Amino acid sequence: MLALLPLLACALPARSQTAALWHVEGITPSNSLVTVDQQGVRRQLVLAYLSIPAGRQPYADRAAKVLRAQLVGQQINVRPVGRQGQDYVSALVYVGSNNFNEDFLRRGHAWVNPLANPPPQWRRIEAAARATRAGLWATPNPVHPVDWETSQKQAINVRGTLDRIANDEEAQKRMRSTFVGSRSAKVYYPFSCAPWLELDNRDVVVFTTARGAQASGFRALPCKRRG
Questions:
Q1: In CATH, 18-138 is 2.40.30.40
Q2: Residues 29, 67, 32, CA angle at the centre, nearest 5°?
Q3: Residue range 57-116, pLDDT digits in tens
Q4: Contact 31/52 with Cβ under 8 angstroms?
Q5: Does residue 207 carry a pLDDT above 90?
Q6: What is the pLDDT of residues 126-164, one digit of tens each?
Q7: DSSP string of 172-187, one letter each residue
Q8: Which pLDDT belongs to residue 199?
Q9: Helices in the chain by DSSP H: which ranges?
Q10: CA–CA separation, 78 and 123 (whole Å)
Q11: Region 197-223 average pLDDT
């Protein structure tokens, strides 16, 4: 009987061993976590499989408020998964036995990150949140953070182009003689008119004269400035 005790001791889980805990100090502007690991090293932690609204994107403040309220000051279990970077850790976060990443997605505070190769159930969780209009899904026209970032970069490029044109007399002359139309609506605007900037690239057609646009069956619309 005594000889069996060492074998039983090896077979049973060691209750004295506990998972390593990280401490959450704060939230970054990109809505990742500022953490301190078990060695006392400060680490940026990205919630694995999630794309969270951040910066000036709609709902970013609400997502940050939830992260701050539920994680800052907490001890978390960290399970690194997916692609890791030099400056960050991508991980599943557990508060006790609760998978925080899944819960955050379930309550509609984030999208699934399509680039992270998430398990199939994560898309089902997102679909359920969308169906019940949880969190961001109750807001008008929610936009995935990847698409939002792309549109912001495009807007910056357009503004930069218009700034260069404003200082180039020849470019201004070309702009005044250029018209942009919508293939689907069969309407056209002067190049300097803001509404055409909202057209899908596949819907855009360019004319060098108003007469050419009209000859192609397009009609002019008055230029309504933004603001």
A1: no
A2: 40
A3: 899 999 999 999 999 999 999 999 988 888 899 999 999 999 999 999 999 999 999 888
A4: yes
A5: no
A6: 999 999 999 999 998 898 888 888 766 665 655 555 566
A7: HHHHHT-EEEETTTTE
A8: 75
A9: 5-11, 60-71, 100-106, 120-131, 145-166, 169-176, 210-215
A10: 22
A11: 84
Handedness of CA 143, 100, 44, 24 (dihedral sign): positive
Which of 104, 93, 107 shows the shortest CA–CA distance to 137?
107
- Identify the helix (H) or strand (E) that includes residue 207: strand 204-207
CB 23 within 8 A of CB 35: yes
The answer to whether 30 and 55 have CB atoms below 8 angstroms apart is yes
Please give the order of strands across the beta sheet that includes 204-207: 204-207, 179-182, 187-190, 219-220
Domain limits of the chain?
A: 18-138, 168-220
The CA–CA distances, whole Å, from 141 to 80, 119, 129, 130, 133 equal 33, 26, 15, 12, 12
pLDDT score of 154: 62
First to last CA, the chain: 86
d(C-alpha 179, C-alpha 214), whole Å:
11
The residue assigned the tokens 């603001």 is 227
pLDDT of residue 2: 39
pLDDT of 46 above 80: yes
